[in-house]
Structure formats: C-alpha cells, structure tokens
C-alpha cells in the first residue's frame, strides 16, 4: 500500500502568500468597490526591457525555422548565457569562475528549494529569522526540520534572529550548524550585511566544514558600493558557499522564469567516512535527472540583459523601484513608524505601532487603507510585530497607497 | 560539518544521454569529416507551429507594456491554459476533471522526477524494464531504490521486464509494489498497452492501495483508435493514478518547456496510522514551495496548440514524424532486424543481430554508418540486446541514415 511522506503533514497547509491572497480575496469579495493596492507580494510591475522583448521576438522567429529551431538545450544552460554571466556578473568584480560552475535554471525558487537534496537528511539547518519560507519548508518536507512547536519554531532548525534590537545582524550560533541559508540583500527585511559581517560567516563555515547557501536574488538593488554583490567577493567562499541568482527581480522575469546557481568545484560535503564529495558533480547529476533546462527563449531573454542597451534599461527599472522604496521610507518614517531596509533592497520592513501583532496590523491596513502588506510573522517568529512593504508597484499606486496610509494613520 | 546525501554516490555518474553524447563527441573529434546523423536522443527537429510562434510574439508584446505585463502567475498555471487542457484533452474524451486537478509545469521531466517526494522513503517502487531513467534515478537519489547489484538492478525496485518474449506486456508482480511507474506509449520501446491490459494495472492498484504514476508524454502519437490516450479512460483510475503530460513531443516544446500533471482529488496515500491523505493538496503544497510556475510565454504558447489552427499544425508535425517511424520500420525490417514500436509512438525498438550487446551495436553503427542510436541497456537490464531509434529527425536525415544502415549491414 502506498504510504505518504508524513513530513508534509507537519507543515502548514498554505504557503504564506497564498494565505495572504485568500484574505485579500475575501476582502475584495465583501468590498467590491474598494480599489486594493498591493504592496504585499514581491512581484514586479514594470514591463520587460525593450532589449529583452526584442530578444524574445528573435528567438521565437528562430524557433519557427528549421535551421534556427532549438530543441533540448544543455540542462546546465546554453554557453551564450553562461559566458555572459561569467563576464558581466563575476569577472567584472574580479571573481574567476568556470563555465561549468554555472547552472542556469527556471528561477531561484526551484534551486533554493531543491539544493537540500544534496545533503544528508539529518544535517542541521540554520536560517536567519525572519526568512523567505522556502528555505525552511523545503527542509521540513524531507524531515530535516524536525517538529514545529507552539511558537512556530522547528526543533531541528537553528534560528538566528534579525530584529531591531540586534540591528538585524545575525549572530554566529553557539551550536553546530551544518548548512546555513543566508539571503542578502535580505528578503523580507531589506537589510544588508557588510563585507566584515559576511566574512564572519565564511570563516565560520570554513572552520566548521559547514555550507552556506547564499541567496543573492536582490544583489542588483545594492546602492552602497561597500556592500558585496556576491559572496565570492569574500576570500574562501569558493570552498564553502553555493550562490543563487535570479533575473526575476533584477530584470522583471517573474513571468519569464530564469536564474542561475553557482556551485564552485571546491565546495564539498563529507561522507560519514570523512571523504569529501564535490557538490558540483552532484548538482549536475541532480539537474540532469530531474530538470530539462530553462526555456531557450528565456535564456536568450536573460542574455539580452547583458547587452549595452539591456544593462541600461534594466538599471532604469531598478532605479524606478528604488525611487519607490525611498518614497515609502520617507513617508512611513514621517508617520513615526520604525522602518528598516529600503536602501539596498526593494523591501521595507516596518515595526508595527503599539506592538500590534503582524496579522492584526495587516488586517487593519487592508480594511482601513485598502493597502496590502505582508505580515512579518509569516516569515518566521522574529517577524512578529513587523510587516513588509515592497517597492515593486507603479509610482502612481505607490504614491496613492502612501497617501491612504497617511490618511488612515492620522 | 555538512554531510553529503550518500545515495547520490550509488548512482552512475553520468545520465545515459550524457554518456552517449560523450562517446559521440569522441567519435566526431577523431572523425572530423564524418557527418553524424543522430537517431539517438529523443529530441524533435521540426520548427514550432506558426500558431505557437504567433502566440509567443503576442505574449512578448504584452510583456513590453504596463497593462499587458505578467509577473508571477499561479504556481499551478494560468486558467486560460488549464481550461484549454480540460476541454481539449479530457472533456473531449468524456473524462471529467476539475481545474485544480491540473498542475502546469516546465515539462514532464521535472514532475516525474519530483513526484516521489510525496511518498514515504521506504515505499517499494515498480517499473517496467526497460524504462526512462528518471523514474528509477529520482528514487535512488532519496534512497528508495536500495543498492545496485552487478547486473544493474536496484534491490528495492521491482522490475517488470518488457521483452520480445512476453510481447512487451508487463506482468502484474507477485510481490507487493506500492508505487508503479508506467509510460504508454512507451519510452523506449514504442509499444502500447491495450485498454484491457491497462485495466489490470488499475485494478491491481485499487485492490492493493497502490499508486500508478502514468507518463502519457507520447499519447499524441497514438494512431490506433482503441489505445487509450489517458489512464483516466479506465474506470477507477481517478482513485489511484497521477498522470503526466508534456508539450515537448506533442508540439515540439523541448526548448520551450511546458507540460502538466493531473492529480485527481480522489488519489490518496496512507499514513502509518491508516489515514488517507489527499495527494492533490500535497502536490499543490510542494509546487507552491519549490516552483514558481511555468513561463507566461510558454503557457500562451501551449494554449495556442489548442486553437483550430494550432491543432492542425501540431497534428501535421506528428504525422511528419510518424511517417519517419513507418519508414524506419519498413527499412530495418527489410534488413531482417526484429523491430517493435513505431506504430503508436515515435520510437522504434530494435533487437540487435546475433545477440550483439547494446553498447557494441551502438558503437558498430556509429563507426560503421555514422548513425547514432541509443543503447537499450542504458534504459535497464531488459534493454540489453536492443537499441532505440527515434523518428524525430528530418525526412532527409532519416532517409539518409536508413540508406547508410542498409549499406553498412549488407
């Protein structure tokens, strides 16, 4: 008789954003005249760059011909894209990687969710808290996270709280952690770590033979020149870190689906007998078995973001969103709200007034201002008492939402 | 210290097709003047249907505008595609499914590889042999397949041989099997199962509370009206079968990436305590956690295959490939080779002459005729002594390859 994987039964039925969407839909159904503005889901709103659209048209035309047709590509991605990535994302920063250390994918969510397949089921997992739910949930589904307690903490997960009181700087844990997920610039807090702070993590990993899974999905939003764009800017990271990138937020590809994962050949994990196994080879095997490559069209679209025109257009859209972010920060701070992030990331992390809990404040804002934010507690226990705003809306919607919040809070 | 998932170390380093590609590349490097024709990898060669290309252009234009831009779609896929699937793939065959039983993906390989995440680590797995490597490998990676013996058989996998001697009809096993992978029309043998034979499997699954993972990736190639296109044509299958579809071979989407998985709400697996858990909810949770939806562009492309024009064009390409298949069958049979498949599938399964082993015959044909086939043993132990030809090439290449084989074998 077929038996279910009972670990699935331990995780909440709904994915956080599905939960938020449900509540928003209930509100819309009962308030059909309300024009709800979402600053909740981290989804982009501006059109694709013209250079990208042109590349999609060109790829489609190729696919309509015998000689230009592309069937299965290499599971790791086409050379034209991997080479562009090496050149523009890494060589330009003095980081030397090899082509076969780059694995193109259909977006970071898949790879950040699947990467845990490479490690033993009983490795301990460390996460900053609050965090993007995928890192924990993907481990919970395989049993690595243990059991959830009444406070929403998993027994086998080591949480490194990032809150106002510690300036959102995660402390090196006092317990053994085998695998650490870090996301900087951070989703959901919008905060960044300095080179010095990141170095502490790399050194911890090197000294403890631990792994860092580093999510750099928002690196294109960094404004401050001192903040690293890649963990490989830190010496030694090539030996202990796997890094995830995505075109979703960089170039508005949330509906196009393309990203890439970097697995340096020096990164290893150990067998019980102490033999070091290269994870690059294992990831390659995993992807060759369970993935058939990203769409040729999406890869040509991604390549176009590296042309001179593409780079300009992509930057213009990022600047557009960061202008929203500055506006959100300005207005919410003027209302007396304690705000974090929004300077090197498109997320603003706001402490709720009067210690209101996250979901209550979310509901109050939805009903009071018809604006959607994301309850911070949905990202983890240390997110309680915070909500997240995104800067991805249109200028007009962002300004209107801020006006409504002003009117509501006054 | 980070420990590796040691199950990965038990599987061969290379994926079968990567292995074949390596040997072909060695040949090409040492015989630069040889024009190698591949009838090996199951990749399509004909351009996308004009209706599909038009849909891609239209989607790209939408994405270049504010109002037409699409960001994140529902992880399960857009309604426009799910509704088209329900109507054209199922309702048209008298099968009533609901929209939320359809999960759009980036191609069947991902889902056939990931579906095993829903079941307990120690479920026993049954496969027809020979088989598409993903079904076994994805289970081996999590430890469900046991240990591989010297004959290439995994200790926890129940093999149901499909060979000339049993007319390629898999026998119901005499041991308990919790999860059975079936692929019909079959990759690699090109054979099909009658309604009656499929019914035996559905009844087995119903009586034993087992699950069937039914890969219907090639159903569009069925010519015989009596052969089912979906396992849901069999009464009771809704209670025990999950079905996988892909636009890869149906519509040439190997480089576009789109497919869908059907998980009827009646399909359950049990907890240790005997509680029936709905797999539809679990798959939804898995996909919401580790997948961000198929590209909007790919989904509009898939939708276009259901328009009147699209259906005609897609059928014309399938007919083109099946003409190749008939030609391959005719010629190889005339050379005295024992051939199977090729009538309801784009694959022809050929017994090697004089009991030559698969890899030897593969090598002999590569060096002797400069034609690539796929060694049957790469698909499993019962594939030894067979090779697979695909009908996906161009007419010209197919005819030339057959001429060279004629010359070589005479």
State the end-to-end CA separation of chain A: 61 Å
Helicity of chain A, in percent?
25-40%
- For the residues shown, what is the average pLDDT of chain A? 96
CA radius of gyration of chain A: 21 Å
CATH superfamily of the largest domain in chain A: Type I PLP-dependent aspartate aminotransferase-like (Major domain)
Strands across the major sheet of chain A, in which order?
2-8-7-6-5-3-4
Order of helices and strands of chain A: HEHHEHEHEEHEEHEEEHHHEEHEEEH
Structural class of chain A: alpha/beta
Which protein chains are joined by the largest interface, and how many residues does each one contribute? A-B, 91 and 91 residues
Q: From the 3D coordinates, which CATH architecture of the largest domain in chain A would you assign? A: 3-Layer(aba) Sandwich
The outline of chain A comes out as globular
* Most strands sheet of chain A: 7 strands, mixed
The protein's oligomeric status is homodimer
The name CATH uses for the topology of the largest domain in chain A is Aspartate Aminotransferase, domain 2
Q: State which percent range the strand residues of chain A make up.
A: 5-15%
Tally of discrete structural domains of chain A = 2
Main CATH class of the largest domain in chain A: Alpha Beta
- Count the E strands of chain A: 15
Contiguous low-pLDDT stretches of chain A (5 residues minimum) are none
């Amino acid at each position: 008789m077929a038996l279910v994987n009972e670990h699935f039964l331990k995780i909440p039925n709904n994915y956080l954003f599905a939960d938020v969407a449900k509540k928003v839909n209930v509100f819309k159904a009962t308030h059909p005249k309300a024009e709800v503005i979402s600053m909740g889901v981290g989804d982009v709103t501006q059109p694709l760059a013209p250079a990208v659209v042109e590349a999609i048209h060109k790829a489609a035309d190729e696919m309509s011909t015998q000689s230009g047709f592309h069937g299965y590509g290499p599971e790791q991605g086409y050379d034209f894209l991997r080479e562009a990535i090496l050149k523009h994302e890494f060589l330009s920063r003095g980081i030397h990687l090899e082509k076969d250390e780059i694995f193109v994918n259909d977006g970071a969510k898949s790879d950040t969710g699947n990467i845990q397949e490479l490690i033993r089921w009983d490795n301990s997992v460390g996460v900053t808290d609050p965090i993007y739910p995928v890192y924990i949930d993907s481990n919970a589904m395989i049993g690595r996270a243990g059991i959830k307690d009444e406070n929403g903490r998993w027994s086998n997960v080591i949480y490194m709280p990032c809150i106002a009181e510690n300036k959102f700087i995660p402390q090196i844990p006092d317990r053994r952690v085998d695998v650490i997920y870090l996301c900087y610039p951070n989703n959901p807090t919008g905060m960044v770590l300095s080179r010095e702070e990141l170095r502490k993590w790399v050194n911890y990993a090197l000294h403890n033979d631990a792994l860092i899974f580093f999510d750099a999905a928002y690196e294109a939003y960094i404004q401050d020149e001192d903040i690293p764009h890649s963990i490989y800017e830190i010496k030694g990271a090539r030996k202990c870190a796997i890094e995830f990138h995505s075109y979703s937020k960089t170039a508005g590809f949330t509906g196009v689906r393309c990203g890439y994962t970097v697995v340096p050949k020096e990164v290893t994990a150990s067998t019980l007998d102490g033999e070091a196994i290269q994870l690059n080879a294992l990831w390659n095997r995993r992807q060759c078995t369970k993935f058939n490559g990203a769409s040729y069209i999406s890869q040509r679209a991604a390549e176009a973001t590296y042309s001179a025109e593409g780079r300009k257009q992509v930057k213009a859209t990022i600047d557009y969103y960061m202008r929203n972010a500055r506006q959100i920060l300005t207005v919410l701070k003027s209302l007396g709200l304690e705000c974090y992030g929004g300077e090197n990331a498109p997320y603003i992390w706001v402490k709720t007034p009067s210690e209101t809990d996250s979901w209550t404040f979310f509901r109050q804002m939805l009903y009071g201002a018809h604006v959607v934010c994301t309850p911070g507690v949905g990202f983890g226990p240390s997110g309680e008492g915070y909500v997240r705003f995104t800067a991805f809306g249109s200028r007009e919607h962002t300004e209107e939402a801020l006006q409504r919040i002003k009117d509501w809070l006054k």
